[in-house]
Amino acid sequence: MDFPDRAAEMLSALSFVKYDEVAITRILKVFCHFGIKQTFFYTAWCMETYPHLVEAILKYGHEIAAHGYLHEGANHETRERQAYWLDKQVDIFKRMTGAGPRVWRAPLYDALKDSLELLAERGFTYDASLVGDDVPYVLNTRKGEIIALPLYWAMDGWPHYIHSLDFQYTMTIKSPDEDIAVFDSEFDAMYKLGGLLVTVWHPFVFGRLARLDRVADWIGQLIDKGKVWFATVEEIAAHVKDCRDDGSWQPQIENMPYYEGRIAEWEPKQEMAGN
Predict the structure, then answer these.
(1) Of the candidates 195, 205, 250, 252, which lies 20 to 30 Å from 175 by C-alpha distance?
(2) pLDDT tens, 39-56?
(3) Among candidate residues 211, 156, 216, 155, the one with its CA nearest the CA of residue 187
């Protein structure tokens, strides 16, 4: 929701994200080639605006998960406004997919203390926004349980590639090999020690020809390595529940919220008179 007053006029920025229409079709072909299913985190506004892409994703058996209405960051919203945007998303999901969403990723990973309770109230059971472990873990809220499927910025293609003056992101652009080297190092450690690798690839970012071609090579390498499971977020979360229920594994359990407010003893420093 950046630049709301000018967004419709910013042609270069719009063409940047409109590349999704090219990229998603290309990405679906790659996933189909390898026979893997993945989760697409979709803003509800985009679902309404580009229903043909929603249909294509569902046609190939992939999962669509909630990602805000217009990529609004919760850190800038009240509890009431968060609830409003969540309700709007749920209504659109029900209308377009036949069921409410159960998986959510906070836009910009901006989840607030209230966010998880609001999700639980609306029937969400999984979150993919937080960074508190290397494997799935459980968050107990006052409104119900949420399973967290963690990630962190190193596994997001955005900081590796995005250079846009309109978006006010000007990172040094990496080659596809450099990007995959970061992901591959994370994978190697998790393969050795155990972990969940959640990659975040925005279609209009990594769906460019050279980048997606390198990603396809990497997917093939991981499959050839063996003992690697590609799955949707919901499939992973369901597996976590099954393992917990049969006693084969006990996830970390965290009670929400972590803290109710500021530390009582803390007092802001006061400016000294005359300074």
Answers:
(1) 195
(2) 999 999 999 999 999 999
(3) 155
